[in-house]
Amino acid sequence: MRTRRRRSPAGVATGERLKFHRTLYFPPKFLWGTATSAHQVEGNNRANDWWAWEQRVKNRPKSGRACDHYFRYRDDVAVIKSLHGNAYRFSLEWSRIEPEAGQWNHRAIDHYRDLLRQLNRSGIKPMVTLHHFTLPQWVAKHGGWTRRHTIAYYLRYVRYVVGELGDQVEFWTTVNEPLGYALHAYLVGLWPPQRTSYWQTLVVYRNLASAHRRAYRAIHQMYRARRWHKPKIGFNGNNVSLYAYRQHSLFSWLFIRLADWLWNHSFFALTGATHDFIAVNYYFHYRLHGVHFRILRFYTQARAEHREMSEVGWEVYPQGIFDVLIDLRRYGKPIYVTENGIATTHESKRTRYLVSYLKEVYHAVQAGVDVRGYFWWSLLDNFEWHLGFTPRFGLVKVNYRNQERTLRPAAYAYARIVSVNAIPHRMLRVLGHSINLPATRRRKNRHPA
Ligand code: BGC
């Protein structure tokens, strides 16, 4: 611990601790990762519902070659290694593995097996997501998640990939952000199949919960039968932190309780004890004015109040991740932050975001929350769904013309953090402690206004 000799006003030297500049150590064996998802980075995922929708709907951004990660994964694994990362979260593209009902594409399996081997050999623990927003077109044509038989299709796919790849994988997540998916695709109508129905949203959400429960049991049973090491299975929730303007209104309080239950706990309520760990994606702090059910209105407040935001209009609010982690402690399971990051082209802002959010994760650990890993979203700039390629979330910049990768300043900062398993005290200066303000100069001939 660094101490600085200081003089008290009476002129007596004191050894005061520089509390703000203490290096913040994370627990041993902490997983330091980055995350991507198949459709956002692989390129040419022609057999899924997103691809079909991108071609069909006018003026839609098209994923095209994306980051060509499907062919450049070896180089990208080398990038992760150069950043000292010891974990990588990615998703399997169901439509590549099963382009038509019941037809398995062995080459796709070989591809993912090789990716897993590369990761494991490099000391990078894979966390594999089985469903990250996209469906094979044949499943979508059968009604997607509005139909119960999609659960059976999903389980057949899960059994197949787990049988083929399970020996390489310890961490599985069954579905990514089930609520976010159901709302965007079935209530707000922003994503395919662009429905705006409360009823279908509920049905989709319930079916996703049932798919999770059954996949959880099936995967455990398969590992047991093959005598593989016990897997760890969860789903990726998109938890939000909430603030009520009218703190003392009973009505607001009730509404916040309802919103909190819906966003942060309803999937747990529907899936019971089928979780070995909690996987949380954190981006959103919602300031709730009153009771309104139009989901997009949640986003407007940060802008109206001129708060600091990302380039997609999401408020920068580091303490929110602390609040969410404290809240998740109730489930008594290890917690992994499986996504957190910012869309920006201001590099100092990206680094500040990284350090300030991680600092809150550190505080949560100090407060007794069993956080065991953190994955930055994203390793690469990528296809941000309906927003296309404009938002830049990557630690690594991608030039989409020639697929060149360039490490951003935040990548170097992250590598430094990962290599020492701590936020070094010097790096905390990025948050504004210990800034040397220029001495105020007296201006001559200054006239009062
Ligand atoms: C999703 C990612 C997405 C990220 C940033 C998460 O909700 O899982 O696919 O790119 O947010 O919007």
Features:
449 residues; alpha/beta; eight-stranded parallel barrel; two-stranded antiparallel ribbon; 39% helix; globular; binds beta-D-glucopyranose
Provide a short characterization of the protein structure:
The protein is of the alpha/beta class. The protein contains 14 helices and 14 strands.
Can you walk through the features of this model?
- By secondary structure, the chain is α/β, with parallel strands linked by helices.
- It has helices spanning 38-41, 49-56, 69-82, 94-97, 106-121, 137-141, 149-165, 178-187, 198-226, 250-271, 300-304, 319-328, 347-366, 409-420, and strands at residues 3-7, 13-17, 24-25, 31-35, 87-91, 125-129, 171-176, 232-244, 278-288, 335-339, 371-377, 396-399, 404-407, 422-423.
- The longest helix is centred in the middle third of the chain and has 29 residues, at 198-226.
- 39% of the residues lie in helices and 18% in strands.
- A hairpin with a 5-residue loop joins strand 1 (3-7) and strand 2.
- An eight-stranded parallel barrel has the order 4-5-6-7-8-9-10-11, surrounded by six helices. A two-stranded antiparallel ribbon has the order 1-2. Strands 3-14 form a two-stranded antiparallel ribbon.
- Beta-D-glucopyranose binds at residues 37, 40, 176-177, 180, 238, 281, 339, 377, 384.
- The site of beta-D-glucopyranose (BGC) has 10 residues, from loops.
